[in-house]
Amino acid sequence: MTREAASAVEAAQTGVGPMALVALEQRFAPRERIVTDDLAAALLPPTARAALARMGPRAASVMAAFAERRYPGLWGGMLCRKRFIDEKLREALGAIEALVNLGAGFDTRAYRMLPGTGVRAWEVDQTSNIDAKWRRLSQRLGTLPPQIRLVAADLGRDALDATLAAHGYVPQLRTFFIWEGVTQYLDEAGVRKTLAFLATAAPGSRLAFTYVRRDFLEGAPMAGHAVYYHRFVEKRGIWRYGIDPAELPGLLASYGWRVIEAPEPQEMEQRYIAPTGRTLTCMPIERSVYAERI
Ligand SMILES: C[S@@+](CC[C@H](N)C(=O)[O-])C[C@H]1O[C@@H](n2cnc3c(N)ncnc32)[C@H](O)[C@@H]1O
Fold first, then answer.
1. Whose CA is nearest to atom 26 of ligand 1?
2. 242 CB contacts (<8 Å, ≥6 apart)?
3. For the CA of 104, the nearest atom of ligand 1
4. Are strands 257-261 and 286-293 parallel, antiparallel or unpaired?
5. All residues at 6 or more sequence positions from 214 whose CB lies less than 8 Å from its CB, including other chains
6. Which of 86, 130, 165, 287 would you call most buried, defined as having the most Cβ atoms within 10 angstroms of its Cβ?
7. Protein residues whose CB sits closer than 6 Å to any atom of ligand 1
8. End-to-end Cα, the chain, rounded Å
9. Do residues 144 and 134 touch, judged by C-beta distance below 8 A?
10. Residue 219: its pLDDT value, please?
11. Strand, helix or coil at 97?
């Protein structure tokens, strides 16, 4: 297997992680949850689902505390980004006609939040994740909702416009794009290729996305985060692309997008973690952004 192909397989495997955290989060009492999602567990691989079924609130709390010690801010950061995007999508529902989730992994928003809204959805990911998602959703839901299409594509290589068009998407639809936890797995050409596709979006479309800070990927020391650098950059080499927060507005503007909101990690903690009374933090190396096509 080439290094490129091995990286793609590793990147595909990361699709499960965020939903495993969301599924575990459902073991907490409703007032302590950062995200509520009763479909998450059904999207996990069978072995993870079986392990989860044996876990109660105490086990989930021990795991969250362990994760916070080993990977500071990972649990809180992933859940804050999920909650941020959930809220932005919910707020936008009356104003959009389509949802396109790029690198959707096993995310459940299309199935939780779109029924009854008339909004159509396209979920894009690598073939292995699309196939697994189709199997798990079919098991849980029987048939897939007809307004949601699962689309196998490689964001770095495939022509996204043609691939989505083949599945019925038209760029004239005012669309909410999600690109969550994905940009760091692409190289610069892949990110720019995706941004060039996003430049064709209808005015008023929205984009909720995340990125990893470039200075972190270049090795800038950040307190407590050497473990991420070792795991994702040095050892596995799967985090490849980062953005300087100061350059982000200019980068998006060059593709026709205006930043509406780009909360700092501390702000995410205040908004979403503080009300739960939990002691989690939100990792400073990944940022969430909400933007509008002008
Ligand atoms: C960390 S997961 C995030 C999944 C989901 N967006 C979430 O936050 O729950 C990264 C996802 O990006 C997808 N991905 C990475 N590189 C990709 C590529 N070149 N083309 C399509 N999908 C890709 C992976 O397959 C994986 O599902």
1. 15
2. 184, 211, 212, 213, 214, 215, 216, 217, 218
3. 6
4. antiparallel
5. 242, 243, 244
6. 287
7. 11-12, 14-15, 17-19, 103-105, 107, 125-126, 129, 154-156, 180-182, 185-186, 190
8. 43
9. yes
10. 87
11. coil
Sign of the C-alpha dihedral computed for residues 31, 34, 39 and 41 taken in this order: negative
As a whole number of angstroms, the distance between CA 184 and CA 241 comes to 5
Contact 255, 164 (CB under 8 A): no
Q: What is the mean pLDDT of each run of 10 residues along the chain (294 residues)?
A: 76 92 97 98 96 94 94 95 98 98 98 97 98 98 96 98 98 98 97 98 98 92 80 87 98 98 98 97 96 98
Element (H, E) at 252: helix 248-253
Look up residue 283 and give its DSSP letter: -
Interacting residues of 286 by C-beta distance below 8 A, sequence separation 6+: 77, 81, 181, 184, 210, 211, 212, 213
**Domain CATH code at residue 92:** 3.40.50.150
Q: How far apart are CA 27 and CA 180, in angstroms?
A: 24
81 Cα nearest atom in ligand 1: 8
Burial class, 74, CB count within 10 angstroms (exposed 0-12 / middle 13-18 / buried 19+): buried
Helix, strand, or coil here: 174? Answer: coil
Domain tally, the chain = 1
Query: 148: domain range?
Result: 3-293
CA of 233 to the centre of ligand 1 (A): 17
**Edge-first strand listing for the sheet containing 175-179:** 148-152, 120-125, 98-102, 175-179, 206-212, 286-293, 257-261
Predicted TM-score of the model (pTM): 0.97
